[in-house]
Specification:
By secondary structure, this protein is α/β, with parallel strands linked by helices. It has a single domain, classed as TIM Barrel (Alpha-Beta Barrel), CATH 3.20.20.70. Helix content is about 50%, strand content about 15%. It is built from 10 helices and 9 strands. It has an 8-stranded parallel beta barrel, surrounded by 10 helices. Strand 7, helix 7 (about 190-200) and strand 8 form a beta-alpha-beta unit. The longest helix has 23 residues, at about 255-275.
């Protein structure tokens, strides 16, 4: 069933588990996510991000994600991640997305706050949820890489002010995490996660989940992370599935699809089990 993230993350916060968010830039990814969530009776979040739109346009993504979520036997939120412009976020809402991340994290604090507060006002009227980001989660490579990531970590006291003044449903935090492939093992600031949870009382979001250790995930969830974003692991699994299919003699795109889906399902299953959301639907 198609839902927003509010009750889903409230349940995760109360129950001490996490819900996985998986980007789905094609139907095979969406099938892998929903079919695994249904098999495990787990709530799940799927969607896309603005940076991924060159690969699959937003309208095309909505055409398969929304109907698939509506028909699912478990709660599925359809989330537009890292929306960088107000207009694109509005387009996602009009297409049927039930949750928006309006990422103003690189803007000055008051500008970030005003932008996210306005997005919350709009989304409340449309029964959609809003995720904001405070601090800044950089990239492991490319233009988004930060020279001194700790300079951009989320401050618990500022987070409390941000949540109070915006009314966000979820807060993405910078605590040593980064997008993409980690070149070196990351060191998450678990004490900071605990402090932010205590200061805000709001479900926290961990971006850059691919590549973290199982213990990293468990500790982060125990300390207040309720939503964990996964894409790189899923994307790489899909490629590995295709490569396995080719090695085993699959000769057409159609014949490669089952290999791709099964490889991605294994990743989704692993993460859902790790986050503790099995049977929570």
């Amino acid at each position: 069933m198609l839902v927003n993230m509010r009750k889903m993350l409230e349940g995760a916060k109360a129950g001490g588990y996490g819900v996985g968010f998986f980007n789905a830039v094609n139907v095979e990814m969406a099938r892998s996510i929903i079919e695994t969530a249904e098999a495990l009776r787990a709530p799940v979040i799927m969607g896309t991000a603005e940076v991924l739109l060159p690969y699959t346009p937003l309208e095309r993504v909505a055409e398969y994600l929304i109907p698939m979520a509506e028909k699912a036997a478990v709660p599925v939120a359809v989330h537009y991640d890292h929306g960088l412009t107000f207009d694109k976020c509005m387009e996602a809402l009009k297409l049927g997305f039930t949750s928006i991340m309006y990422d103003c994290s690189t803007a000055p604090y008051e500008e970030n706050l005003r932008g996210v507060a306005e997005m919350v006002r709009v989304c409340r009227a449309m029964n959609a949820t809003v995720e904001g980001e405070l601090g800044h989660v950089g990239d492991n490579e490319g233009a988004g890489r930060l020279a001194n990531p700790s300079d951009y970590y989320t401050d618990p006291d500022v987070a409390a002010d941000f949540v109070r003044r915006t009314g966000v449903d979820a807060l993405a935090v910078a605590v040593g995490n980064a997008h993409g492939d980690y070149k070196f093992p990351p060191k998450l600031d678990f004490e900071r996660i605990t402090a932010i949870t205590r200061a805000t009382g709001t479900p926290l979001v961990l971006h850059g989940g691919s590549g973290l250790s199982d213990d990293d995930f468990r500790q982060a969830v125990q300390r207040g992370v309720c939503k964990v974003n996964i894409f790189t692991d899923l994307d790489k699994a899909g490629r590995a599935g295709v490569e396995a299919g080719l090695r085993q003699g699959a000769g057409t795109l159609m014949q490669l699809i089952p290999y791709e889906i099964e490889a991605m399902k294994a990743v989704v299953r692993n993460k859902i089990e790790l986050f503790g959301s099995v049977g929570r639907a």
